Amino acid sequence: MAEIDDFLQGLYRQEVGTITCKDERLAALREAMGDFPKATMLEATCLYKRQHPSFTESAYVLPTTAELKLPFRLFEPVGGNKEAVVLALHGHGAGAEEALQEDSSHNAFALKLVEQGAVVVLPELAGFGARKRKQDQSEQNSCFSLASHLLLYGKTLAGLRVFECARLLDWIGETRRGNVGCIGFSGGALIGLLLAATDERIKATVLSGFASLMRDSILASRHCLDNYIPGLLAIGETPQLLELVKPRALFIESGSDDHLFPSESVKHALHESKWGEAHFFAGGHQVNGTKAIPWLLNELGKEQQQRGTV
């Protein structure tokens, strides 16, 4: 084994989880992600509204900073549970559109949510789809370019995405009632975990195609730069990050043949964190949803019942 490998393994043993207090972990996590100035107005502009047989689709843009606008789509079921709102966070690929496509690894999870009665909010995360940089139009995404720029300013791309999702929660809070849950796939699950850890407005969270130990995933092979946050391992490995969601509900699904976030490592993280339910299915790096989606809607329904009895 090369000397440099010994060095990295020793660093891992010495540095992981050196911040042990939950409040200190949360403060360190917020600082590590970086801060961003809020836009003065919290007013989304509607671009269009379309009626489908079983739901209504509306497209909006929401100012998040003075310069950035977050495009998102709102799906409202006909006759569904208007008090269950789900933030749907896509992973790498063509952008938010993948969460609507059956032939994608995302398995149309956003559509399946609305078909089962949830109000779904589907944002286009920075660096994907229509939110790529001009120089990256021929590329699949702008993750490397955006992340490397932000790191030089003491900020992170994950932090920007979490910030914009939090602004979207602000808008949801002003325009709708009901409980808000979150489901994220792959890189979107990273954002879902960080958002749920730092924002208690998320009442239930599903992480799909994610939640391996960092040692076995983003440190074991080359991953997108948007996964890397300075100082994150000092805050904790994946089990310690999962613990930050407590006591709110957490569900993790993982495919047995996931080559990016190995399923056995997910089991290890869950066992160590002692928090969260899980579905381990036969498949690869993909959304399954057969148990996760009903679980999420059930949890949001329970939260609503508890609020109604207060």
From TrEMBL:
Origin: domain of life: Bacteria
UniProt cross-references to Gene3D superfamilies, sorted A to Z: alpha/beta hydrolase
PANTHER family noted in UniProt: ACETYL XYLAN ESTERASE DOMAIN-CONTAINING PROTEIN (PTHR22946:SF8), DIENELACTONE HYDROLASE DOMAIN-CONTAINING PROTEIN-RELATED (PTHR22946)
Record's protein name: Dienelactone hydrolase
Organism: Shouchella clausii (Alkalihalobacillus clausii)
